[in-house]
Design a protein that fits this description.
The chain is an alpha+beta fold and 446 residues long. The chain has 10 helices and 23 strands. α2 crosses α3.
């Protein structure tokens, strides 16, 4: 049975990995995947509309400034998921789920006030080129031609056993409409689950690289798009760095070959801004979980230095609370600083857009369509949750809940023929371990 990750942590839950990670999710150990000549045009989804009410990606940056953005909030509407809200406002799944641990990610109660953690402390690294902090799964780009700006995007990174690398490298090549030459290691991984992958996946909706890719100097690693956008903000890939399709398009067009890329793991961040001392805390990734005490000790030493340099009195009890909370929200920690509840109450309220960017639309299911029954539940919430998760697959599996007698059925479709149903049912079995039942045309009446 699918259970709800009501209180997600920085360690992506197995359910969410099943949802977004297992099918065509990585690019580890690639070779010769770039054609010699790039095609002149790209097939890509429509670019995200400009968000005028709140800054989410582009920020002005003054000298010595180490924090940008604003904490905001939006009220949920029917059919919203936290994933939809996160993508619209340039956040990753874990960004919004951890900051709103009391809200059900896939079935929020309409009218819930969701915090948008759009305030970021910059990593402790030079403010130039690309800096990627694995700990909060966020990329920062400091363009040479725009010295007073920083661009930031959420990313998906390597999952357990397929860690993303650390260190300094550079962009060595760029490609539009890349092909994916499936590494033998990933072919074996899928074969063990009864799934046979092709040797090469052409550009299109089934390609996990998306429509843009930039190769790093680290052998076999890339920064690229994705055909599973709702895995952004999770440990989901086979080691590569993934961005939302609309974000990789923008970054790809800004970054040049030779741009340096610095990859760090900094779960604890500090900034002095407007006569206040802020810290931002995240749970260390699994790879560094055993070093949490050491990382915390190093951070506290850094924090004491910043406080001393500014002759500031730190509320050390507050510091401990923020570190334990690990919700990614920059919080002031000087004596008499406001509590999180006060910060949340003062968050900028953003009007809900008419439609969230990329929010799935489920086509009407007619009696003449092929479909499949994925699962049956006693409770409406369970059925709504599974339907939402299916709709956020990549590519989506269109689904809805249907009440029959005292039960709630999750019905996926429409499909044109039995072949399409069989293909979708195989994905459901692979990703959710649920065996779907085919529903022939006209059987939908029952």
């Amino acid at each position: 049975m699918i259970t709800s990750p009501h209180s997600p942590s920085r360690r992506t839950s197995p359910i969410l990995i099943a949802l977004l990670g297992s099918v065509l999710s990585g690019c580890q150990t690639m070779s010769s995947w770039f054609p010699s000549d790039a095609p002149p045009a790209v097939s890509t989804p429509a670019t995200r509309p400009e968000i005028h009410s709140i800054a989410s990606h582009e920020f002005e940056l003054a000298p010595d400034q180490n924090m940008v953005g604003t904490l905001a909030a939006v009220d949920t509407q029917p059919n919203d998921t936290l994933s939809d809200i996160a993508r619209h406002y340039g956040l990753g799944f874990n960004d919004i789920a951890v900051a709103n641990s009391t809200i059900r990610p896939w079935t929020p109660t309409p009218g819930s006030r969701a915090l948008l953690p759009l305030e970021f402390i910059l990593p402790d690294a030079p403010h130039k080129d690309i800096v990627l902090n694995l700990a909060n799964m966020r990329l920062f780009y400091y363009p040479k031609k725009e010295a007073a700006k920083v661009y930031t995007y959420p990313v998906g990174i390597g999952r357990q056993g397929w860690s993303s690398p650390m260190g300094v490298t550079s962009i060595v090549s760029k490609q539009v409409n890349p092909e994916w030459h499936v590494p033998p290691s990933i072919q074996r991984e899928h074969a063990e689950k009864g799934d046979t992958l092709p040797t090469v996946v052409r550009s299109g909706p089934d390609n996990p690289l998306g429509y843009y890719a930039m190769r790093l100097g680290f052998p076999s690693y890339l920064i690229h798009g994705t055909n599973k956008p709702y895995g952004i903000g999770m440990q989901i890939s086979h080691g590569c760095i993934q961005l939302y399709p609309e974000d990789i398009e923008k970054l790809f067009n800004k970054v040049t070959v030779g741009t340096k890329v610095r990859i760090v793991h900094q779960p604890y961040l500090v900034a002095w801004q407007q006569h206040a001392l802020y810290i931002e805390a995240h749970e260390p990734l699994d790879k560094w979980a055993g070093s949490k005490g050491k990382l915390k000790k190093q951070f506290l030493k850094q924090l004491k230095k910043v406080a001393a340099d500014n002759n500031a009195e730190v509320d050390w009890e507050r510091v401990e609370q923020v570190i334990q909370r690990a919700d990614g929200i920059p919080t002031p920690v000087l004596k008499n600083s406001p509590e999180l509840a006060e910060l949340s109450a003062k968050a900028v309220q953003v009007a809900h857009p008419e439609r969230l960017y990329g929010q799935p639309e489920v086509a009407e299911l007619k009696d003449s369509d092929w479909s499949m029954r994925v699962a049956t539940y006693r409770t409406e919430t369970e059925a709504e949750q599974l339907a939402a998760m299916l709709n956020h697959q990549g590519p989506p599996i269109p689904a809805r809940k249907v009440k029959l007698n005292d039960e709630y059925h999750v019905i996926a479709g429409p499909y044109k023929n039995k072949k399409e149903v069989t293909k979708a049912a195989k994905r459901v079995l692979m990703d959710f371990e649920l065996k779907a039942e085919t529903i022939k045309p006209d059987q939908n009446k029952s």
